[in-house]
Design brief:
Layout lengths: L1 H30 L1 H13 L8 H24 L5 H4 L4 E3 L1 H7 L7 E4 L10 H5 L4 E4 L9 H10 L2 E4 L6 H8 L3 E5 L8 E6 L2 E6 L1 H9 L3 E10 L2 E6 L16 H20 L17
């Protein structure tokens, strides 16, 4: 009976936590019309939603904001827990790639996207007993950003300011740490125009540059939430900078970046409703 009561309590908590996450996402969508417009433009521009079907697009936009609300709720729920406990409920795919890289002394570069619960992917560092270093801008809001960064540091994720020099990241890799760089992140100094979902877009190319400078491989890791506190974490075969096939007229950095964009495109096709990017990526419109 005690076990059944515990199951009932957990179910009740998950139900109300999901409800709270959805309402939080709805609140952000209603109070941030410029963000809603940016999300809508991105989805339509990349053909993840159809401008000819406003009702379906509305639902997809709503799901993006609710995904962010669940992200916040999960962050709060896991404050007293370790990442190793949180990740026990995940569906891990491709762990052999992680285990193979972990046999080496040097670190490697983690790349991913703002889907699922991307912050919880710090559990990868705990799994291989390595620190994660990540150049980041403001987290959540300027008011609570310092607190979030301190919490992440206790979990083995060190936040660095976005810097023009790659030296801190090169040192981190040499010390055996992991460097996390989101492929769709907005905190970059220099980017390049590439192709995402067959559309031109300007995104960061830091992962490819850092890989070429350091000789370290890039490990793509994508997550997609399946329910509250549960997600599929897919680890893809690493990209080694010295094994990239040369293409006439293309620099290795461009070849690597294009390959990463292909992987991101495939992931977003299945995870459009969780893509929490609240700035416009449409060329010529800037960040709104």
């Amino acid at each position: 009976m005690h076990y059944l009561g515990q199951m009932g309590s957990e179910s009740w908590t998950r139900t109300w936590a999901t409800f709270a996450g959805h309402r939080l996402g709805d609140l952000r969508r209603l109070t941030m019309p410029h963000e809603e417009a940016a999300v809508r433009r991105n989805l339509i521009y990349f053909d993840l939603a159809s401008g000819a079907n406003p009702s379906a697009t509305d639902q997809l936009v709503k799901s993006v904001f609710r995904a962010f609300g669940l992200f916040v709720v999960e962050f709060l729920m896991t404050l007293p827990k370790g990442d190793d406990r949180v990740s026990e409920a995940w569906d891990w795919q491709g762990l052999t790639h992680l285990e193979t890289l972990n046999r080496g002394r040097r670190g490697w570069i983690l790349v991913g996207a703002h889907t699922g619960n991307w912050e919880q992917l710090g559990a990868i560092g705990r799994r291989v007993n390595r620190r994660i270093v990540a150049p980041v801008g403001t987290q959540f809001s300027p008011v609570i950003s310092p607190l979030v960064k301190r919490i992440k540091l206790r979990r083995g994720i060190e936040s660095l300011p976005v810097d023009r020099s790659p030296r801190p990241l090169l040192r981190a890799l040499d010390r055996g740490h992991l460097v996390a760089l989101p492929l769709d992140g907005g905190s970059f100094i220099q980017g390049r125009t590439t192709t995402l979902l067959d559309k031109p877009v300007r995104l960061a190319s830091g992962a490819a540059h850092l890989s070429k400078l350091s000789g370290s491989p890039i490990l793509p890791v994508f997550s997609r939430r399946t329910s509250l506190m549960k997600q599929i974490v897919r680890i893809i075969e690493p990209i080694w900078p010295d094994q990239v096939e040369q293409e006439t007229g293309k620099r290795p950095v461009d070849i690597i970046t294009d390959h990463l964009m292909d992987q991101l495109s495939a992931h977003l096709t299945d995870s459009a409703g969780q893509w929490c990017i609240f700035r416009s990526l449409v060329p010529g419109q800037g960040s709104i």
